[in-house]
Design brief:
Elements: H1 7-25, H2 30-37, H3 41-47, H4 52-69, H5 76-86, H6 99-119, H7 128-137, H8 146-155, H9 162-168, H10 173-201
Length: about 200
């Protein structure tokens, strides 16, 4: 597979762009960030049908946010701040509100970060589901309905092996390690920045 076709390298490039902007200007363009997040559904696809809900959720919420912000040049901080001032930071269906859906899909980025970090942890010989369970519990589980949580818990036993998962995203453990480490490293300051915006405004989602 050519480098330009490798999902991991595409993701690294997209989020590196966000990180570079953060370092140079102190903010991240909302549209560029959401475009980078649109790469994540492939991971959920590769994990199997148990994460079908997460794939649909990120696609629907990304579409909603882009319909609201496309071409406006707003940073994440500006967009969330506008929602906060307008009293719509907790709104989920307001066509102008982006804070709630943005927080949800940022949780998907956190899931990806935690999944890669644990999956490729040195000496980790556990099945992929162990890493996926940890990542799920620490990122997106808390806001799901009980029925969905139970379905995901049961479906974890159907997850592919680590080798099969990496093959689905066009990698081997050897080829994935370097880019995966880079992706974890570049997304951590991004996650801190985005979650920090909500914390500073006292928005709890």
């Amino acid at each position: 597979m050519e480098d330009e076709d490798r999902w991991l390298l595409k993701a690294v490039k997209a989020f590196e762009g966000c990180k570079e902007e953060l370092e140079s200007s102190g903010g991240i363009d909302l549209e560029a960030y959401v475009r980078a997040l649109e790469l994540i559904p492939l991971v959920f696809d590769s994990l199997g049908s148990v994460f079908g809900f997460a794939k649909k959720d990120i696609q629907d919420k990304a579409k909603h946010i882009l319909a609201s912000c496309s071409g406006k040049g707003k940073t994440i901080k500006e967009a969330v701040g506008e929602d906060f001032k307008a009293g719509r930071a907790l709104a989920g269906r307001d066509p102008e509100a982006v804070s709630r859906p943005l927080h949800r899909i940022t949780n998907s980025l956190k899931f990806l970060n935690l999944l890669l970090k644990d999956t490729l942890r040195e000496g980790n010989e556990e099945h992929l589901r162990v890493s996926a369970q940890k990542a799920f519990k620490e990122s997106i589980e808390y806001y799901l309905e009980w029925v969905v949580k139970k379905a995901v818990a049961a479906g974890m036993y159907l997850l592919p092996s680590r080798e099969a998962f990496l093959k689905k995203i066009g990698e081997t453990e050897e080829s994935a390690r370097g880019p995966a480490i880079r992706l974890v490293e570049v997304t951590e300051p991004i996650l801190s920045h985005v979650y920090g915006i909500y914390e500073d405004l006292g928005i709890e989602l």
